[in-house]
Structure formats: C-alpha cells, structure tokens
C-alpha cells in the first residue's frame, strides 16, 4: 500500500496528465506497491479536486463488467468511476477528439434513476423499480496512462478510464423492454464496425448497477435520484479520430450518435 503522501503525488501526476493531455507511465510502474484501495483513494482525490472547482456528480460508470476483461486484469469483480457534470456531452454538439489522450467509445445502455438506490443488499429488483428510464448511450473513455498500458490500479486511479457520455433522446421504462437482451450495432460513417448484446455485461447489466450500489455503499456513497449509471459496454471499445461520425442502434430502444472534430477552444480540464 501507499502512504498518504504517495497517494497525493500519484493523484497530482494523473491530474496534470489530464489537464495537459500528456500521458504518463503506469502508476503500477512508478509505485509498484499500489493496490486497489490506494487506487480508489487516488481517484477520489481528483474527484474532490473537480467538485471543489464547481463540477457536480451526475452519475457513475461500471468498468470491467465482462468476464473476459476481468480475466485480463486478474480480478473477480468490476470497477467503477464517476461521471461529472462536464462529462455529459450533448448529442448534437461534435466532440473535440484531440482534447483527450487516446479517446475511444463504447456502446452501452444507461440507467437514469428516478429515486435513490439502497446500498448494502441492493438487488436487480431494486434497480428496476428505481429506474425512471433506460437510454441508448455512447461512453467516451480515455486513458491518461501511456498507450493504454493499464493494470487494475492504473484504471481505477484514473477514474476507471472515464471521459464522458453521450445520451440518446429515446426513453424507455424498464417494463417496456428486457435490459438483459438488447441487440446493439455500432456504425462508423455509416458502415457497421461492431455489434453485441447487453447480456455481455455480467449476463444482465441491471446486475452491474446493483453491484455498483452495493460497492459504493462501502465508501458511504449512494446512487441518487437523477444519476446516470453506465453498467458496461456490450461491444469492444473503438478508437475515435477527428472527422469520424458514429451511430449506435439498440433494438427496441433507439439510437445515439456522436461526431468527432478537432479542438478549437478552451480545454474544460484546465482549472
């Protein structure tokens, strides 16, 4: 484990990498003793930094929600990160891709909570009862670690590689569809490049949301009414570049689109 000074130093390194768009060596290389507990504390240091700057928590995302990714990372449960107010990106506004280090997108459904979830003991039934609606979404992920050379502690400390989310306009109540069996197809510039099914997320993405509610409860946190919860991707992550456009279509749910351009203005990471 790391001591508080080392955690603070690691958090400062990641924050500078995000603000400068200058990736750094893996934390697991620089601090070989780092563990998952250290990583969550490092994540929280930078979340508190951003909250102090005026951002607010808009939700959370679950990462490593497929068995394949867990096996790659040598873990037996997912991880999570925060979604802040400036990370919820409007569908109609192009995303400035070169504001990020190594931007990628993932295809997910999103759960928008109508009421807060219980913590310890939260079940899928609790999640479905509390969900106001489900939306199509594209998660924007990024790594402030060079070349995505990440271990578990690297991605957890780096806010689970979170960068943003684009939500589609469609709204469906959980009773109107089966969240555990939604086919999704991703198109780049009109050409299909990936497809998957929401069952790839722990067999049922609702279970990922319930897991998250139980997990954050151990840190004294609740998933609150109005929060957007991303349970994990049902397709592979795809690198994005300026000039490209993407559309994800979800059977029975709707679609969501995102276009990527070069940066033209002030970087919101600079504070």
Summarize the structure.
It is built from 7 helices and 13 strands. It is globular, with a radius of gyration of 17 Å. The chain has 271 residues and is α+β, with helices and mostly antiparallel strands.
Give average pLDDT, whole number: 93
What structural category characterises the helix and strand content?
alpha+beta
Strand count, sense and barrel status of the largest sheet are: 8 strands, mixed
Element pattern in H and E: HHHEHEEEEHEHEEEHEEEE
Give the amount of beta strand, in percent.
Answer: 25-35%
Explain this structure.
- With 271 residues, this protein is α+β, with helices and mostly antiparallel strands.
- 26% of the residues lie in helices and 28% in strands.
- The protein is built from seven helices and 13 strands.
- The strands form two sheets. Strands 1, 2, 3, 5, 6, 7, 10 and 11 form an eight-stranded mixed β-sheet that branches. A five-stranded mixed β-sheet has the order 4-13-12-8-9, with no helix packed on it.
- Strand 12 (245-250) and strand 13 (254-261) form a beta hairpin.
- Helix 5 crosses helix 7.
- The longest helix has 17 residues, at 4-20.
- The model has no long low-confidence stretch (mean pLDDT 93).
């Amino acid at each position: 484990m790391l001591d508080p000074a080392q955690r603070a130093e690691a958090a400062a390194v990641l924050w500078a990498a995000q603000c400068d768009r200058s990736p750094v060596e893996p934390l697991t290389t620089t601090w070989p003793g780092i563990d998952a507990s250290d990583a969550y504390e490092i994540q929280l240091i930078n979340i508190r930094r951003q909250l102090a700057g005026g951002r607010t928590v808009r939700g959370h995302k679950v990462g490593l929600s497929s068995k394949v990714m867990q096996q790659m990372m040598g873990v037996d449960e997912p991880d999570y990160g925060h979604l802040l107010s400036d990370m919820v990106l409007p569908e109609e506004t192009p995303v400035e891709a070169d504001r990020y280090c190594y931007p990628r997108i993932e295809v997910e459904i999103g759960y928008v909570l109508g009421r807060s979830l219980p913590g310890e003991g939260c079940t899928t039934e609790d999640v479905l009862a509390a969900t106001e609606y489900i939306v199509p979404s594209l998660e924007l992920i990024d790594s402030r670690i060079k070349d995505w050379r990440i271990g578990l502690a690297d991605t957890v400390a780096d806010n689970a590689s979170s960068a943003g989310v684009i939500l589609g306009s469609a709204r469906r109540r959980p009773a109107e569809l089966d969240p555990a069996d939604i086919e999704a197809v991703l198109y780049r510039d009109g050409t299909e490049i990936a497809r998957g099914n929401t069952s790839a997320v722990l067999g049922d993405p609702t279970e990922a949301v319930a897991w998250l509610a139980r997990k954050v409860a151990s840190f004294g946190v609740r998933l609150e009414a109005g929060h957007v919860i991303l349970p994990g991707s049902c397709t592979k992550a795809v690198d994005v570049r300026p000039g490209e456009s993407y559309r994800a279509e979800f059977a029975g749910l709707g679609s969501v689109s995102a276009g990527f351009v070069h940066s033209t203005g002030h970087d919101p990471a600079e504070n």
